[in-house]
Each structure stands twice: as C-alpha cells, then as structure tokens.
Design goal:
Layout (H helix, E strand, L loop, with lengths): L1 H9 L6 E2 L1 H19 L3 H11 L2 H6 L3 H16 L6 H8 E4 L4 E2 L5 E7 L11 E7 L5 E3 L6 E5 L12 E10 L2 E12 L3 H4 L11 H17 L3 E2 L5 H16 L11 E8 L5 E8 L9 E7 L8 H4 L1 H13 L2 E5 L13 H9 L4 E11 L1 H12 L6 E5 L16 E6 L5 H13 L5 E6 L7 H17 L2
Parallel strand pairs: 3-9, 13-14, 13-15, 15-16, 16-17, 17-18
Antiparallel strand pairs: 1-10, 2-4, 4-7, 5-6, 5-8, 8-9, 11-12, 12-14
C-alpha cells in the first residue's frame, strides 16, 4: 500500500498552491519539529517516533487530517509520558480556516473555526476562541457548532500597517485560559490583481523576468480563493516584484551577491523552461570571493519550500548561514527515473552568472524522492559536485564511474520504510567500486525525521571537503 501510493504520487507534479488542509498540516509539522528540537530526551523521542511513523503513509494517501492528528499525538508524546486530557486534545484539533489570504481591506476578514480532524470526546465546557488581525480589535466567539464563521476586524484606519502582511492569531481558551495558539499570514493589498499586471509577455527569460512572471501568477492566485501551502508575505512579494521590474527595464540585475536573504526565484533552464527555487544568500557575501553552494532536493509531495521551512524548521538554512554559504532548493516535477528530473546543472550555471559560486565546492543533498534526485544528478552532471548526500531513500545507479571518486553519504533511520532502498544504494555503490561511501543508520528515527537528524553529519563531510 505504502509503496504503491508513493509511486503514484511521484508521477504527478507538485503544485505551489494547495488546499487549506495541506497548509494546516504544514503548520502542525512545524510545531512538532520545534518540539522535537526542544525535547532531546531519548525516552521522549522513542515515544514520539512510535506515533509519528504513520504520518508519511497518511500524507501520501491524502489523509491529511489523520496525519495532523498523528503529528499532534507525537508532539504530546514528546512533551510528556502522560496522555493529554480530552479537553486539550479537543482544543488542539481546532484551526482558523482563512479562505482568502489576500484581501483589499474594504471589509472585515472572514474566518472559519474548524476541526482539522474529528474528535469522539464531548466538546469541552467553557471552550471559546479569540481572534485578532494585526493590531485590530480581538473578537471572542463560543463555537456551539463547527465550523463557526467569525468576522475579524482590520486594524484601525489610522494604523500605518493596516495595509501590509498581517498575522491573524487564534487562541483557543478553556475556562478563559489560552491553551492553544494558531497563526496565519494575511495580506491587505488594494487592487492586487491590477498591481500584479506587470506586462511581461515576450520578455527575455532572465532571472528577473522569469521571477516577475511567477510572482504575477502567484499574486493573482492569492487574490482569488487559492490557499498556499505556506505563509506567503504577498505585500512583500509584490514590492519585490516591482523592484525587479524597475531593474529589468533599466537593464540592471536585481539578484546579486550584495542582496542577502531568502529569495523566491525562478531560474530559466532552457529556451522556454524555468524552475521555481528558494535561494538563500548569506550576509557579507563578497562577489569576488568564491564560496560553496549547497543544492537541496525535497521529497515527494513537497516543494522548494520544504528545506527552507520543514526538515527541522529549515535547519539547512541555519547551517549555511553559519558558514556564509549559498543554498538553493529547486522544485521537483516528475519522479526521478520515472520520466523527469530537476535541471540541477543548468540551475547552478545560471546562478553562477550572478553569485560567486566555487565550482569545486558544490554539494548536493536530497531526501526520499530527492535522494533519488541526488543520485540522478551525480550521474547526469559528472564532476559537478564535490559530494552528495542521500537521506531516507535510494536511487538507481546507472553510471558507476560517476561515483568512483565522489564522496557519498547515505543516511537512513532504523525505522524508516525506505531503509531497504538506502541499503540497496549502498550495496550498488560499493559493488561498483565507489571509493568513498559512508552509510549510517540512526536509531529511533523514521522517514520524516531523518533529514533533521542527519544534517549535522552531512555538513561535517561538506566542511571537511570545503576546507573548514
């Protein structure tokens, strides 16, 4: 069942925008990962792994509510060896459903209070919710039935931050005491569709023009009823697109070494092809001093956002920031080996036109489907990488000579359903006379957690090869 579902999902493209349940599941995953980092006790982690092992199968079979329940149970297991009360579980099941993430500010925000998964226990007495948007007046409601619709006022007219990226907060209270807090980003922009009409048709596919086109589509989708998979600061993205447009029209680059930060960028990878990416540029980057680049390949059902916001709440970004390294996470389309792959080499070459990438210190790391993508890229672009790391997965070895001297790290959890694939990859590489392969199994770790647990060892290898 699990393998069949995975193969099915791998053959469909991953959308940037998704249903509200996908967004909410991502929020619960982030909460679990934060708890995982906060609770390092081995007994607590064993309890959590026993619960979280079901999440991947539930997600890949589209049972998102049940996956959310499992993540909540795993987080409770991390925090205590005693089960939570039914009242707390009831409160935890609730979430704010915001049908539009970009509004024009002409009316109050409409929010639905819903349960992410059904609860068998009786609704607690004294349960209420309190919602507020930015500096707007809080509204308290008692949900006698679910879903419940609540009108939440915007910040007052005189507030200079009234039209901006604002945080909607929802507190769930039991007997007037807050026990759960949720947050959703909502942008207030007047006439966003008109503002996003950049008129880019027929322009040369530079980094700027390609990114402007994707921004325009993103902003128009957000202005409708499309829910993103993650929080999108639409007001900030609009302002960036307007700056890109001014730079492009003036024939000047927008994406340069002296513009640090987390960039949502679209990279031209052919005459008509482009690839959406998240790019991290460290502060203080010297355009004349070559630095390492890490390419991060996400797993099935994910996107370019996963390494930046998941996998230990973006732990790979922190590791690159500490070192002053560049990081790029491309969006994968079809499955590796099942009809498509990520044009990693073309992405690296295009970025090298703008950033001081050291061609001798380019590293690639991938999880699950991305592990297969990592092995695929090492063979498709021989000599392009200084090292490769495959986590929670395997890959097909077609050209053994590509791995003769390439350092390869294979990491997998002892409870990972992809353990056999990882071991098969290790065998294929060693049988193929690869000289520098490291295989490591992590106790009390399953498929979801392997990236967070293995990244330290991966970067130890990268550091050694980078001369740190």
């Amino acid at each position: 069942m699990r393998t069949t579902t995975v193969l099915f999902l791998l053959t469909v493209a991953t959308p940037v925008l998704a249903q509200p349940e996908r967004y909410e599941l991502g929020q619960r995953l982030k909460a679990f990962e934060a708890a995982w980092d906060a609770h390092t006790d081995s007994a607590a982690r064993k309890r959590a792994v026993a619960a979280v092992d079901k999440v991947t199968q539930q997600f890949l079979s589209f049972r998102l509510g049940e996956a959310g329940r499992t993540l909540d149970e795993a987080r409770f297991a991390l925090e205590s060896d005693k089960p939570p009360s039914d009242d707390l579980k009831w409160a935890t099941s609730l979430y704010p459903d915001v049908p539009k993430r970009v509004i024009d500010g002409s009316a109050d925000l409409t929010v639905g209070v819903k349960a992410f998964y059904p609860m068998k226990a009786k609704r607690p007495d004294g349960l209420s919710v309190r919602l507020a948007l930015g500096t707007g007046k809080p509204v308290t409601a008692t949900p006698d039935k679910l879903p419940t619709v609540v009108k939440v006022p915007l910040p007052p007219a005189g507030d200079e931050k009234r039209r901006d990226d604002l945080t909607l907060t929802m507190e769930v209270l039991l007997a007037d005491k807050p026990v759960v807090k949720r947050a959703v980003l909502v942008s207030v922009i007047d006439g966003v569709e008109a503002q996003a009409n950049f008129g880019t048709t027929g322009e040369k596919p530079t980094l700027e023009w390609a990114s402007i086109r994707d921004r325009a589509e993103l902003l128009k989708d957000l202005a409708k009823d499309t829910i993103p998979e993650t929080d999108v600061p639409a007001a900030k993205r609009l302002a960036e697109a307007q700056e890109m447009l001014a730079a492009a029209k003036a024939g000047k680059p927008y994406f340069t070494a002296d513009r640090p930060g987390d960039h949502w960028i679209t990279v031209p990878t052919g005459d008509k092809d482009t690839t959406a990416c998240r790019l991290f540029v460290p502060k203080g980057l010297d355009a004349k001093t070559p630095v390492p680049l890490v390419v991060a390949m996400h797993g099935a059902g994910g996107s370019e956002n996963l390494f930046f916001e998941g996998y230990g709440a973006g732990h790979v970004v922190t590791l690159c920031e500490q070192r002053g390294w560049l990081l790029v996470a491309p969006r994968a389309g079809l499955a590796f080996g099942l009809g498509g792959s990520v044009p990693v080499g073309e992405i690296i070459d295009k970025l090298a036109e703008r950033y001081p990438i050291d061609p001798k210190r380019v590293f690639v790391v991938g999880h699950s489907m991305g592990a297969a993508g990592t092995i695929d890229a090492a063979q498709k672009y021989p000599g392009k990488f200084a090292a490769a790391a495959a986590l929670g997965g395997g890959g097909r070895v077609r050209k053994g000579d590509a791995f003769a001297d390439l350092p390869v790290f294979i990491g997998v959890g002892e409870q990972d359903f992809a353990r056999k694939n990882a071991k098969a990859l290790h065998t294929a590489l060693t049988d193929g006379k690869a000289k520098n392969v490291t295989f490591k199994e992590y106790p009390d770790v399953e498929h979801l957690l392997i990236v967070r647990e293995a990244l330290g060892d991966v970067f130890d290898l990268f550091d050694k090869l980078a001369g740190r």
